[in-house]
TrEMBL record:
Keywords: Coiled coil, Transport. Gene3D superfamilies: 2.40.30.170, 2.40.420.20, 2.40.50.100, Helix hairpin bin. This is RND family efflux transporter MFP subunit. Residues 106-157 form a coiled coil. It comes from Marinilabilia salmonicolor. Residues 200-270 form the CusB-like beta-barrel domain. Residues 280-347 form the YknX-like C-terminal permuted SH3-like domain. Belongs to the membrane fusion protein (MFP) (TC 8.A.1) family. One of its GO terms (cellular component) is efflux pump complex. GO terms for molecular function: efflux transmembrane transporter activity.
Amino acid sequence: MKNIIAALIFVVILAGCGNQNQRFNMDVAVDVTVQNLSPGTVREVVTVTGDLLPAGSVTLTNEMSGEYFLQTNPATGTLFRMGDRVKKGSVIIRLEDKAYRNTTDIEGERLNLEISEQEYEKQKALYEKGGVTQRELVNAERNLVSARKTYENAQINLAKMSIDSPIDGVITSLPYYSQGVRVQQGVEMVSIMNYDRMILNVTLPAASFGKVKAGQTAFITSYSSAEDTVTGTISQLSPALDIATRSFKGRISVQNSTNLLRPGMFVNAGIVVQQSDSTLSVPPNVVLSQMGGKFVYVVDGETARKRIVQTGLENKDRVEIVDGLEAGEQIVVKGFETLRDGSKVKIEDEVK
């Protein structure tokens, strides 16, 4: 009996010590870092990666052989070089072939066309007055058609002696040839890309099927330069899933007018599938769970208070709070691990 009484006394003493320790822990102020809540934007984002491609790209070869002459860039006053911008129609290279030019009398063909046009108009007027037969009019028309084709072909062949840019863009490749050296037909002359607008082909997970839609905004960031972000738009989506990979294809059109990004870059694309504006949000790690749901700690004076919250949209940086908090309240973002409802706190730092 005495042993039982002694045991009970020991348990009571231990309980008392535990309560004292609990009260002691509640009385000791915990250093915390807080953040003032203010409305902002929270986005649900589907993240994918891929390689950027230029919206326009062309490699030009020469259709005629001739002596090579690189032309002067009117914007710089020097010969064209890689990295130079060109406009559609800009003459980058000219080829000279005196023997070919001598056999292609463009001025003679133009004069012959003018004579044929005048003769046809003359025969047409005479025919209407009965002065010539229909056969004579038809012959004049045939001569006109033949002269026009001959002149047009001469223009086309002469145009082959110059290498013109078919697009607005930037010279990305310009093989070196000495001025005046003869180059054979069919060699690479110049490559041009337009990367003011680019294309990103992506593979999307099946979980995002139905969430990702044409017209949605995507934020494109380079892994080599994370601060450089440009905006893109979902332009195309496959309507079917790939059975083997459980994924589907998409295409993002990227506006790159500032040329922050370049073709061939491996980039990250964050596709915004949902967005809440003027809403409260907190860092994901401060949202804790209990049997009754989710909660965060807020600072009330010098005391931490457990606040039950209802969450909405989430991403890797923020969790939307749709109920339970108000703008202007201070939430604990560091030091909350040892807190309990009613714990004393001391604000050590405040983050924005």
